[in-house]
Structure formats: C-alpha cells, structure tokens
Amino acid sequence: MTDNPKFSVFGETIEIVVTSKSANYQMCAGIQISPPGGGPPPHRHLGEEEIFTVISGEFDLFDGERWHPLKPGDVRLSPRGQVHAFRNSGKTDGKMMFITNGGGLDEYFAEISSLRVPEDEERLNEINRHYQIEIMPLK
C-alpha cells in the first residue's frame, strides 16, 4: 500500500494514516470523514479493539445498548467483540479518528471500496467474514 491511502466507502471518505503493513499488523489508524447522518452501521470486530477520537463535528457513538453524544476531543474504546457504531449527528461533515489494536482494517476498506449495496452484498458478506467483522441490526 502507498503512504496515506484514501478510500471512498459507502459515501464516507477514509484516509489511512498508519497502515497495518507499516505497523507489522499490530495496529491501523485512519481518519473517517462522515457527512451529516453518515457513519458505519452497527457492527463488531472479532479480531481487534477500536479506539475513536472526534476530531471535528458532532457524533453519537453506539455501544451496543444506546447512543452517547461525543464532541471534539472525546475518546472512546470499543472492546473486541462489542457491537458499536457512530454517526455524524451534526449539520456539517465531521472527522473521526480510529485506531485499531490489531491490523487489517485498512486492507478491509481497500477491498470493500469498490462495492455497491445491494448489488455486491454477497461479496461484502464474504469480505466481512474474512476480516471477522459482523454487521448487526440496529436496535
């Protein structure tokens, strides 16, 4: 991978700032730019923990039970296996930094960046299984 690869994933812009390969697959870090209402669906990682830091904008973080408001500078941990999600609750684009304890998330984004849902849903499910990511229904 090149330095600071960027991906467009389902309307989100993701810039990787520490690649898994450069960190010997011990971690990965990136910045996700989410439009108002944007963010990933509830999901869980079976292979890594994830730490979130709000850089700019207003976000809510789902911990598997309820949504918690976050402001710039707030940091939250999602332990391995915990259902989580975040969404931009503001009126402008927001930036969220993520750091994983365990590498591979950048390679996951590279694989899914060309997919379209629902057309490529079967392939997305295969990739999710490979990276041990489970998409969950919203409660």
Low-confidence stretches: none
Number of domains: 1
Order of helices and strands: EEEEEEEEEEHHE
Approximately how much beta-strand content do the residues carry?
35-45%
Architecture per CATH nomenclature, i.e. the level-2 architecture: Sandwich
State Rg: 14 Å
Q: Can you give a write-up of this model?
A:
With 139 residues, the protein is mainly beta. It has a single domain, classed as Jelly Rolls. Helix content is 13%, strand content 41%. It has 2 helices and 11 strands, in the order E-E-E-E-E-E-E-E-E-E-H-H-E. It has helices at residues 105-112, 121-130, and strands at residues 6-9, 12-18, 27-34, 43-45, 49-56, 59-62, 67-70, 75-78, 85-88, 94-101, 133-135. Strands 1-2-3-10-5-8 form a 6-stranded antiparallel sheet, with helices on one face. The longest helix is centred in the last third of the chain and has 10 residues, at 121-130. It is globular, with a radius of gyration of 14 Å. The mean pLDDT is 95.
Quick structural summary:
The chain is mainly beta. The chain has helices at residues 105-112, 121-130, and strands at 6-9, 12-18, 27-34, 43-45, 49-56, 59-62, 67-70, 75-78, 85-88, 94-101, 133-135.
